[in-house]
Amino acid sequence: MDYRGRGPVMGRLTVVLILVLSLAGFIIPGIAVSSEQEITVRSDSLRIEEIKGEIRFVGNVVLNYQNAVLTCNTLVLLTENSSPSGVKRGIAEGNVVITHLEDRAEADRAEFDVASGQVDLTGSPKLIRDRNIISATKITYFLDSGIANFDGTVEATIITPEETE
Length: 165
Hints:
- It contains 2 helices and 14 strands, in the order βαβαββββββββββββ.
- The protein is mainly β.
- It has one domain (2-119): lipopolysaccharide transport protein A fold (Sandwich).
- The longest helix is centred in the N-terminal third of the chain and has 5 residues, at 23-27.
- The model is unreliable at 1-35 (pLDDT under 50).
């Protein structure tokens, strides 16, 4: 199936998916997801390839979940049985930005594995909170433990608060 917005009349395609599993938690670290939550995904086009078990959002992708937003050029969900509730892995590519409250992650690519709860950020990844920035060649975040590993050349810019008298 190929769902594409065509011409100025259709504009952007808006797709609302109810994912029974905790997909948002695997895209956006630190978010607790109950058994059933609504996740809204908007993109310029959507392609579902049932045989390959692939759901592909392309162009100006915006995923909203509670207080979190994922934006990217392309989001691919690899599923069992082409069902959104059967998502095994996800790959966000191109200008990936994940924001949650005051935290922001940026990378060229984010890949998440549902079973392990592991999120890998590559392509100039960095984590930003306020004016504090940590960048590395690769950032791996484990959702269950909250542990983040920074591999390759790591650079941290930490801004200490000014003392007031």
